[in-house]
């Protein structure tokens, strides 16, 4: 027998299929060890044949075959090709996506337990073999674990019994089930809106269906129903969420509803737990894979449904190679399995909503919260006026009053600090002016090491401002409050309130987040102060007030998506308020209350926001009406990086010479962050009218790669730093 093997070395020079002779019984999808270039490396069997086309004497045998069910499902091989082609990565790199890292690197294995049992047949032992006789007596009473017998009778005795074929050692798999809470979660009777959403999706002739449902409209229950229907049909499901370890309620709800049929892959699991959950899916014991981005590669067969919840979330784009889009992979799998892909969000991404409007995706709208609960009222607090009034505090008068009211009625509040925007853009606290690039109409980013402002799109540099060009005011701000200062002020204002804070600086590990959210969920604190990570889908019934500090800060990110991001963020954060019986409120503090994005957000006017955004992007030729590509070059050596950069740049120049009409922008420059972890960073930035040259850009990146410089392509990058 001969096996076609892909060796687990992600390098373009070994991106081939190698042939080895293999023992009979070797199956497609098996993990194997093979000799390769003087070493023993891991590989995957992608085909097994009776004969070989090579000279049989030159073919080396496989060193070992893992004694387990084949790790890879047949679908992997079809997707492997597609992914390798689409993102220009070696086949081994795309196969790796389908295996948990822990397994590939051999860090963990199945938790097996070795046991000993007697074999059939006569037992005759020498009188002197006392220990062996003792072991046989033990085994006559039933199988024992090897560890127990070794401790009791010694290793030599057991070995002797095995040699004489009196006893045998066998393995059973021991599952490390992840710990966690399970809340009772009975199926709810669907509301008419939910019912018709489920029916629409199941009857739809569209491969992809988008649920645009306001926060609290009961999307989760729709997903659970769709999943249950597929399970009933004997099919499986993948349910993707942005970061499941941050949403403990969702976790316990899923466990409660589906029990052992659900396998939850999240970053809070130990390597062993993840490994076992993965095998439960592979073996068919579990039928629903739930997890973040990487769970889209879950080893399920006969998939009947794939769900991407909060589809607008940027975590669905991988920022490491292969830089895949989760939605694209999900579409490939949906195609392969002939099943539906469901996207859900209160604030769908502009790209997805355009497709829904154009009829490419099915569209379901849920405009009401469950039980007709109103969406929380959003009050705008104009922080320019607060400053003029002589209020130096981080908190507007409106927010203080609402906090007072909330605490006195025994409810809870969330204070959301939009800190990611802080350190970058420059804002005049008198008039709300924000420094922008004259060429690109995006806000400039402050670079402290050079004390200047830069545009991340064209690389233009501007002098740091000393006064506001609009009003002459001198109160410019470009670095702001941290959560710590917010908590400090809150403690002074509300000495008797109990406050917890959650951000990346205060919490170590995902477990820490979980604990804080659990504490808050159990009402062990009155106010939760946090950054982006508290915006995601939590359902805290006692929260009736959400304060958003500096709501407009993310408007001024140097990114064409900043308007969209701000709208999404405000809607999501506001959605945490008033989810149960008491009416919710939101206070939104801003320096630019007249900004149209904020106006749309306050009115919950997604359609208005969308129409406007689409018009602007079409006029300015930003994605999806163009394609922004960044060819990144990184290296530990500056000269190697520059050489690769030049090579890539001139190759792109050549395309432009042929087809200047498709180019909106082309330049090469330092990346905004010039060095990360000792590696210099350069980029060729292109904005193209169409996608027709995309493949060539990938070719250019592959060709410009050298042993010392890494070159790769990012499409419409989420992060331009
Ligand atoms: P979304 O994901 O759209 O923000 P959720 O799925 O979190 O909304 O639902 C909001 C709340 O409504 C949750 O507390 C949920 O338990 C409840 N809920 C959902 N569907 C129903 C239903 N059919 N009957 C009663 N309560 C429901
Ligand atoms: Zn610019």
What does this protein look like?
The chain is of the alpha/beta class and 721 residues long. It folds into six domains: 103 residues, PriA, 3(prime) DNA-binding domain (GIY-YIG endonuclease, 3-Layer(aba) Sandwich), CATH 3.40.1440.60; 64 residues, Arc Repressor Mutant, subunit A, CATH 1.10.10; 175 residues, P-loop containing nucleotide triphosphate hydrolases (Rossmann fold); 176 residues, Rossmann fold (3-Layer(aba) Sandwich), CATH 3.40.50; 56 residues, no CATH class; 89 residues, Ribosomal protein S10 (Alpha-Beta Plaits, 2-Layer Sandwich). Helices cover 32% and strands 23% of the residues. It has 21 helices and 30 strands. A seven-stranded parallel beta sheet has the order 11-12-10-13-14-9-15, with helices on both faces. Strands 16-26-25-17-24-23 form a six-stranded parallel beta sheet, with helices on both faces. α17 links the parallel β25 and β26. α1 runs antiparallel to α11. The protein is globular. Adenosine-5'-diphosphate binds next to α8.
Present the secondary structure layout.
Blueprint: E1 2-7, E2 18-21, E3 31-36, E4 39-49, E5 64-65, H1 75-87, H2 91-96, H3 101-104, E6 112-118, H4 130-140, E7 144-145, H5 146-153, H6 155-163, E8 167-173, H7 192-203, E9 208-213, H8 219-232, E10 236-240, H9 248-258, E11 262-265, H10 271-283, E12 288-291, E13 303-309, H11 326-337, E14 340-345, H12 350-357, E15 362-366, E16 377-382, H13 383-388, H14 397-408, E17 412-417, E18 427-428, E19 445-447, E20 452-454, E21 461-463, E22 476-477, H15 483-493, E23 499-502, H16 509-521, E24 527-530, E25 543-549, H17 562-574, E26 585-590, H18 596-602, H19 606-620, E27 627-635, H20 638-658, E28 663-676, E29 679-688, H21 694-704, E30 709-715
Parallel strand pairs: 9-14, 9-15, 10-12, 10-13, 11-12, 13-14, 16-26, 17-24, 17-25, 23-24, 25-26
Antiparallel strand pairs: 1-2, 1-4, 3-4, 3-5, 6-7, 6-8, 18-22, 19-20, 20-21, 27-29, 27-30, 28-29
Helix pairs in contact: 1-11, 4-6, 5-6, 7-8, 17-18, 20-21
The structure holds adenosine-5'-diphosphate and zinc ion.
